[in-house]
Design brief:
Helix content is 29%, strand content 19%. It has a 3-stranded mixed beta sheet with strand order 1-2-3, with helices on both faces. A two-stranded antiparallel ribbon has the order 4-5. The protein is globular. 25% of the residues are buried.
C-alpha cells in the first residue's frame, strides 16, 4: 500500500521536473527510513530483496549494500548520519556493523 496517491506522485514529478517512482521495500512505503547514502554509496536494510535492491540502485544511481545498525536495527536512518566526508553511528552499533557501513558508504575498500 502507499500513503501517497500515485496521481500525486506523478503530479510532483511534473511540477518539480524530477523523476519519481512508486517503490516499496518489503511492502513498506517509507523507504527513506530503511536506508542512508552519501550520494554515491549507501547502506540499506538487509531485508531488501534482490529485485528491490536492483530497482533502487538503478533509479537512484547508487551502489547499495545490505546491513543493519545499532545491534540489528533494520531502520538504517534511525542510527546513522552520513555525508561525503564520513559517517556517525549509534553507540549500540557493533564492530561488524560499523565495518559493513564503512564499506557500504565507500570509505573502506572491500
Amino acid at each position: 500500500w502507499s500513503s501517497i496517491p500515485i496521481g500525486l506522485v506523478f503530479r510532483n514529478e511534473e511540477t518539480f521536473k524530477i523523476p519519481t517512482a512508486d517503490i516499496t521495500i518489503r511492502d513498506v512505503p517509507t523507504i527513506g527510513s530503511l536506508m542512508a547514502h552519501n550520494g554515491t554509496h549507501g547502506l540499506i536494510t538487509n531485508e531488501v530483496s534482490q529485485a528491490e535492491l536492483e530497482k533502487l540502485e538503478d533509479f537512484l544511481g547508487l551502489t547499495l549494500v545490505g546491513g543493519s545498525i545499532n545491534m540489528g536495527a533494520t531502520h538504517i536512518a534511525s542510527g546513522v548520519a552520513v555525508n561525503k566526508h564520513g559517517f556517525i553511528v549509534g553507540e549500540s552499533s557493533g564492530c561488524p556493523e560499523i565495518i559493513n557501513a564503512d564499506q557500504a558508504f565507500g570509505f573502506l575498500d572491500n
